[in-house]
Amino acid sequence: MSSLLNYKREGSGQPVVLIHGLFGDLNNLGVLARDLKQDFDVISIDLRNHGKSFHSSEHSYPVMAKDVSILLDSLNITSPIIIGHSMGGKVAMALCEHYPLAKLIVLDMSPVKYHTRRHDNVLAGLDTVLSTKPTTRSEAMEQLAQHVEIEGVRQFLGKSLYKVDDYLTWRFNVQSLKANYLNILDWQPITKTDVPVLFIKGGDSDYLTVEHQPFIQQQFSHPKAHVIANTGHWLHAEKPTEVLRAIRKFI
């Protein structure tokens, strides 16, 4: 199994690296990639334990940031602009310790430890699908619905179903993500960096709040913030035009 992350590369120009969140893959930020590839060299990646990248029992921000830096080195990429959403935002911030970045854009995430377990229902649903080995997509979605109420979340998770032998299973490594869930909530503060950073917050989301401001200022010398009104944690999916406008203005 390759220890290099799976990726997709499109366009040309200054490199822009897109990093998805938990339970996602390199297509999650596709709405951003489709626009940015007109002017930039866009590299969309699958993090470890996600998409078509390798599975590992280790899953923490230092190791995920190292994975990304190894990939960027192998592609001879210098001074990339990094854009990360949610868990990918934390990977992007951790990357400041591993790689010289031109700019950093963090979508709805703070450099802090979170204490709320938001994904227990999702993990239970994923487990149910693993144990029942559904043979059709509709069967898998029914199993998921026993635990995950929100249709949009089920559809999002469903994108990572694929067929092995004659049943459906998940591309992501459910066991490792469960075992490392506290690592995903966790955060070890990075050494204060001069990398210019833009935090884009979903107006209705509580992942990035006023209480987090001091922590951001302790770790970033030049932070900027932009709020997208009437949108939640999935701001790039809900309001792509506004998110892209903020990204392009910053870069």
From TrEMBL:
Pfam families recorded: Abhydrolase_6
GO MF entries: hydrolase activity
Keywords: Hydrolase
Domain AB hydrolase-1: 16-245
TM helices/strands, residue ranges: none
Name assigned to this protein: Alpha/beta fold hydrolase
Species of origin: Vibrio qingdaonensis
